[in-house]
């Protein structure tokens, strides 16, 4: 018995002297581990040991979300916390090393400062960020840095912003494969056309709850496009007529198309020869049914190559009411 106790004591004595196997892993694996943590927690690992002190400065994924400030306070927030959040973002970006940034996500619903957000996004671009995900709630117009729109490293761009998407004269996304736009108001035919024309290798496009009021006609001609989603449901009740914008889509390699909305904008489809799956969801409406029915029929005709087409009850009811 005495020998057994002595052995256990010896084992416990050597626990503190055992090799730190995690810290001895390569940086790439440790970065992968840190990617599962929030940026705040990743930075906090600097106190673990000398090995971890600067590891966070080269973590490939950066995620700043100010909603964490008030989720636990029933949507309450305080100026001091806002200041601390902004200072934290700036400190992380300032101390970051020169390594490439894979993903930069910034959500500012409360902590919005035009000059600071402009600087933060510019810093991400300087680090050759590959994926840019922005959720910005602004009180007035805000223009993203021009360097965003000619960034050669970007492969994914997601922008949710409740204002006009101000665009520079020159737009070039040579490597962009995924583009998601939410809540933005398109500025005008010419600028918006440059945006879509500046994405020569785009494969996935999602336009969600955006405002087309400044547009008359736009052409989305993308031979590389494979997935296209338009969620055109208004975020508020509108009694405007259905003049809208004509959205022309030509995509020979498009595989999947999903439309949700009242067809307040007219959709014209051309050369969808590779289409496999399509979905058309039109909510039940009693307003302007003949116009909606005509546009629905035009939309469906453009889907004739699809292997599978799903149609909502609302679209069927619109047809039925017009027959009567």
UniProtKB/TrEMBL annotation:
Residues 19-67 form the F-box domain. InterPro entries: F-box-like_dom_sf, F-box_AtFBL13-like, F-box_dom, FBL13/AtMIF1-like, LRR_dom_sf, LRR_FXL15/At3g58940/PEG3-like. Coiled coil: none annotated. Pfam families: F-box, LRR_At5g56370. SMART domains: FBOX (SM00256). SUPFAM superfamilies: F-box domain, RNI-like. This is F-box domain-containing protein.
């Amino acid at each position: 018995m005495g020998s057994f106790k002595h052995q256990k004591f010896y084992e416990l004595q050597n626990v503190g002297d055992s090799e730190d196997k995690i810290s001895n892993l390569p940086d790439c694996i440790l970065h992968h581990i840190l990617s599962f943590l929030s940026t705040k927690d990743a930075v906090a690992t600097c106190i673990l040991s000398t090995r971890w002190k600067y590891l966070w400065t080269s973590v490939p994924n950066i995620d700043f979300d100010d909603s964490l400030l008030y989720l636990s306070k029933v949507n309450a927030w305080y100026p001091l916390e806002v200041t601390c959040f902004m200072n934290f973002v700036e400190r992380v970006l300032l101390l970051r090393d020169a390594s490439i940034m894979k993903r930069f996500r910034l959500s500012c619903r409360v902590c919005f400062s035009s000059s600071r957000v402009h600087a933060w996004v510019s810093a991400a671009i300087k680090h050759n960020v590959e994926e840019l995900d922005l959720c910005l709630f602004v009180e007035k117009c805000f223009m993203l840095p021009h360097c965003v729109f000619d960034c050669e490293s970007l492969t994914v761009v997601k922008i949710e912003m409740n204002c006009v998407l101000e665009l520079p004269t020159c737009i070039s996304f040579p490597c962009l494969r995924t583009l998601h736009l939410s809540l933005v108001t398109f500025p005008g035919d010419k600028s918006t056309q440059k945006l879509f024309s500046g994405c020569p290798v785009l494969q996935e496009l999602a336009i969600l709850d955006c405002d087309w009021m400044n547009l008359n006609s736009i052409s989305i001609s993308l031979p590389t496009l494979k997935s296209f989603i338009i969620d055109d449901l208004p975020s508020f009740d509108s009694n405007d007529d259905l003049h809208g914008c004509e959205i022309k889509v030509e995509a020979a390699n498009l595989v999947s198309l999903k439309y949700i909305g009242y067809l307040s904008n007219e959709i014209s489809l051309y050369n969808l020869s590779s289409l496999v799956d399509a979905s058309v969801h039109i909510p039940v409406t009693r307003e302007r049914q003949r116009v909606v029915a005509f546009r629905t029929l035009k939309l469906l005709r453009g889907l004739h190559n699809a292997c599978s087409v799903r149609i909502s009850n609302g679209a069927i009811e619109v047809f039925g009411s017009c027959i009567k």
